[in-house]
Structures are given as C-alpha cells and as structure tokens.
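RECORD TYPE: inverse folding
INPUT: structure tokens
STRUCTURE:
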C-alpha cells in the first residue's frame, strides 16, 4: 500500500509526522510530501520512509517576498502557492492508495485530489481542534466547521490528539469512530545521559531548574512564566526555556537581563529528552484561551514524563487527568505564579518513582503506534473491498 503523508510545511521539525511515517513505512511504501525550503533537499531519505519536497515557481523568495509583505499581498499570494502545491501534489501522488492529511489545509488538498481519483482514501489527522485554534478569527473558525462537516463523510479515518478533542469531533460532526493517537515520544534510552544544564548555563549546584519547552508563541503562558521568574530569587530557582517561535526575541531579552532565565534553542527530536532530563521539573503553562488549548494534551507533557520530571500545569482537563492518574505532577489552580512555582519546587519528592515508571511504560510511542498499525490495517482491508 502506498501512503502519502501530506504536510503544508517544509518538514524540518514535525516529530508527529516523522513518527507516523516511520511506523507506516515499516509495512508500507510511505512518503512525506512537504513544501520546498531554502537549503533543503527536494528528495531525501527518512527513517523508513521517503521525503519529497515540492518545489514551486510561485513561492516568493528574497526581494519578491519582502515586496509582497510591504504592499500587503503576502497572505493573498499564499492562495497562489497553495493552488500550485495542489496541482503538483495531485499530479505526482494522486495514484497513491492513501493520503494521510495532517491538519485542515492538507485535508483540503486531499479533497481536491479525491475529485480526480475517487478511489483515493483519506486519513484526517487533526493535530489540534481545527475549528477552535488559538488566535483564529471567528469567521475562519466557522469556515473550517463547515468544511469539516461537509467533507468528513469523505474521510476513511479520523485521528485526534486528546480524549476531549475526540469527544468533540464525535458530538459536533456525528463521527462514529475517532482514533485517539497521542503526541507521545519514544522511550528515553537508558544510556542517554542528561545534558548538564547546571554546567551549560553556569547555574549554582544548589539551585533547582525548571524547564519550559515548546513553541514560543502567544497564549502558551510564556509571558507569565517570564514574569514569575522575574520575582523569584536567582540563587534558588532557575528556568531554561527551550524552543523557537515568534516570541523568541522576548525570551532572549529576558535571558540577557536576568541571571535565572536561560534560553536554549530548539534541538533535534532525538536530543530533546536529554535536555529535558537535565532539569528538576517541567512547566506546562498553556492558557485555556480557546477550546483547542483547553483540550490539549501536548507532547511536552509526555516528554517531561519520559525524562522523569514532576510537572506543574495550568488547569487543563486532559493534562490534569494524566497527572492525577500516575501521580506525576499537580495543577496550579491559580496559574503558574511565582508563589506556585516556588512552592512546587520545594515538594518534588512527593511524586514517587513508581508513578513515573508506570507512566513511562504506558505513555510512549512503542505502545501508541500499535493504534497506528491497527488503523492502517483497517484502511488496507477497505482497499481490498473496493
């Protein structure tokens, strides 16, 4: 069976797609179809799968990109780029058996491809609650709801990342089967030594280290975390912020001005847990500003668990359920304030190793990918009946 994993990015950081492609590539012919990027190979071998980046004449670069931004046509021009991506992708991969569409934009590409080849099967992988995204306009949210309601009957399988999002899709769109496949990492190799963050950032040996990892974007609680550590004495507690995104300059400025705030650029997927394990506890500061964030179950939660870090989280129901079930952290009911963080740092020994051992054994990709194989066994069986 030939599977095309469709993404509308250059596929340099998407660990979820990488894991799916590797898992499906063990039993099938799997290709990740992505956008071209400066300095990136158009054809490349992944771990058990192939990567094909679509080069497009319409993609603005250099002076043209600057000009389009200056005159306010950058966003409208993305429609031209999307049209070319659709045409080139359908031309090259339209004869594949299955398109695994990551997020709503990729699903639209898949729907168009299905007009040309009715036998094409679509798998819709919702990395978030697509119609309820952070900072999304109400108009765009309504458009996505209508698109999903109209086209989900064309989809063979629907995948979501948290129980609450799965329940929401079932209720909102009357979908009978939604498969929950969480953003869990691989198990941390026993031989993988933690990065010594004390040494790397010249942190006193007696100080505790908190870690924030993930995207530096609004409503992830980044501003609140920085504000909290602005009030915390630098001799007792430090924070390492590891990631990238639009708010990175703010993080770098804070790290430059405060001795207990440190910036770590994003690292490759296979190095994340080594850096995570160098901290004493993890911060999960996502703010419930939209349903997608309220219902989130982010990969950083499971990365903290694999690294053996107690977790202090905002009040997010699916995350709170994991923390309580395995006794690996607690919810800060009033948010991640300076007092909440200081108090939690003094009580890290209340989370026993047994809870982490059970959570690490159950919440890892080796276990989660069993659902991927079962899902694609159903897809393959449905191909045989067509």
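DESIGNED SEQUENCE:
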């Amino acid at each position: 069976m030939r599977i095309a994993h469709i993404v509308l990015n250059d596929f340099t950081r998407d660990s979820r797609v990488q894991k799916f492609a590797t898992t499906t590539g063990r039993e099938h012919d799997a290709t990740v179809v992505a956008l071209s990027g400066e300095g990136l190979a158009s054809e490349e071998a992944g771990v058990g799968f192939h990567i094909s980046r679509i080069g497009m004449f319409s993609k603005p670069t250099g002076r043209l990109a600057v000009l389009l931004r200056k005159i306010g046509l950058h966003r409208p021009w993305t429609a031209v780029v999307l049209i070319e991506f659709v045409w080139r992708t359908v031309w090259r991969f339209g004869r594949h058996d299955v398109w695994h569409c990551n997020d709503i934009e990729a699903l639209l590409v898949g729907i168009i491809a299905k007009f040309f080849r009715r036998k094409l099967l679509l798998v819709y992988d919702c990395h978030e609650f697509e119609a309820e995204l952070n900072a999304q306009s109400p108009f765009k949210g309504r458009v996505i709801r209508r698109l999903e309601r109209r086209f989900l009957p064309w989809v063979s399988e629907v995948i979501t990342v948290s129980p609450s999002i799965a329940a929401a899709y079932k209720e909102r769109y009357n979908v009978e089967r939604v498969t929950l496949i969480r953003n869990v990492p691989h198990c941390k190799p026993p031989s993988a030594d933690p990065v010594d963050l004390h040494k790397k950032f010249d942190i006193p040996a007696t100080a505790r280290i908190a870690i924030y990892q993930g995207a530096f974007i609004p409503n992830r609680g980044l501003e609140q975390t920085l504000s909290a550590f602005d009030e915390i004495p630098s001799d007792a507690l430090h924070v390492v912020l590891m990631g990238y995104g639009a708010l990175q300059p703010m993080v770098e400025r804070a790290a430059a001005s405060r001795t207990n705030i440190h910036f770590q650029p994003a690292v490759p997927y296979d190095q994340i847990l080594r850096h995570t394990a160098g901290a004493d506890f993890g911060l999960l500061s996502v703010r419930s500003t939209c349903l997608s964030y309220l219902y989130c179950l982010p990969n950083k939660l499971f990365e903290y668990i694999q690294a053996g870090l107690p977790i202090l989280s905002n009040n997010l129901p699916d995350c709170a359920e994991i923390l309580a079930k395995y006794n690996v952290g607690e919810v800060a009911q009033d948010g991640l304030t300076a007092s909440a963080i200081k108090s939690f740092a003094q009580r890290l020994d209340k989370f026993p190793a047994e809870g982490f051992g059970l959570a690490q054994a159950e919440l890892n990709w080796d276990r989660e990918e069993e659902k991927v194989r079962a899902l694609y066994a159903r897809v393959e069986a449905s191909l045989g009946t067509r």
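NOTES: The chain has a mean pLDDT of 91.
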